[in-house]
Amino acid sequence: MPDDLRKTNRTTITRHDERGSYDRESANSIIDEGMVAHVGFDTEDGPTVIPMTYARIGDEILLHGAVASRWLSGFAKGKPVSVCVTLLDGLVLAQSAFSHSMNYRSVVCFGTATLVTDYEQKQAAFKAFLDHLVPGRWEDCRQPDAKETGATIVLSVPIDEASVKVRSGPPKDAEKDLGLGYWTGVIPLELTPGSPIPDPLMEPGNAAPEYVRRYKRP
User: Fold this and answer.
1) Residue 123's closest CA among 149, 102, 103, 94?
2) Are 104 and 89 in contact (CB under 8 A)?
3) What is the span of the domain harbouring residue 108?
4) Alpha-carbon span 37 to 64, nearest angstrom
5) How many domains in the chain?
6) Structural domain includes residue 36
7) CA–CA gap between residue 152 and residue 33 (Å, rounded)
8) CATH, residue 132
């Protein structure tokens, strides 16, 4: 795949285009740090957006859900989708209400989602899902059997027609508002894990593994 993402009418950034880029490495970095993608597609009942866990293998985003899901029942022949991953880094407080903003990093990807049907490829996708959320967990749990694999839909979306948008830094007040005297600045935000909570049904004396005790994002 080329280093740059494909710029089209759908991915061209018109609002604050100085925040946008089509750099594949930047897109992959954001996708790898995020954990939830919002996926939009058309259904018989109209446009739908659902949050989904995901993983990246190479230049593909992999999504998954239950075969029984009514939202995912129409992908047998492929279906156009839009996939968005957003990381919220801070709240930006400005002198004027109009100039308040957020610091963020986002990727919006367009493409045709196709079914992954090969058994080994689905197993590789399941491993990628767990490794993306909790590195080290795949080798430390029972892996999906044939029945569980068959009950799960895996979709692949190429990371090709996409764009990156990033806002960072302090407020950008209009010059006329700079002397108003209000507090301005950024409230940083980050995802911080808490202390692990043991399952009450787990056998006693089973200590949390290191990848749980030292878990952090990204």
Assistant:
1) 149
2) yes
3) 17-89+103-168
4) 11
5) 1
6) yes
7) 24
8) 2.30.110.10
DSSP secondary structure string for all residues of 13-64: --SSGGGEE-BHHHHHHHHHH---EEEEEEETTEEEEEEE-EEEETTEEEEE
| Sequential pLDDT tens for the chain (218 residues) | 567 999 999 999 888 888 989 999 999 999 999 999 999 999 888 999 999 999 999 999 999 988 888 777 788 889 999 999 999 999 999 999 999 999 999 999 999 999 999 999 999 999 999 999 999 999 999 999 999 999 999 999 999 999 999 999 999 999 999 999 999 999 999 999 999 999 999 998 899 999 999 999 87
What length does the chain have?
218
Give the tokens for residue 33.
């740090």
Burial of 45 (0-12, 13-18, 19+ CB in 10 A): exposed
Residue 187 · residue 90 · CB < 8 Å: yes
**In 116-217, which ranges are E strands?**
152-158, 161-167, 185-188
In whole angstroms, what is the distance from residue 159 CA to residue 60 CA? 5
The one-letter amino acid at 209: P
Phi, psi of 104 (to 5 degrees): -155, 165
Cα dihedral 173, 179, 180, 184 in deg (nearest 10): 50
> Do the domain assignments include residue 146?
yes
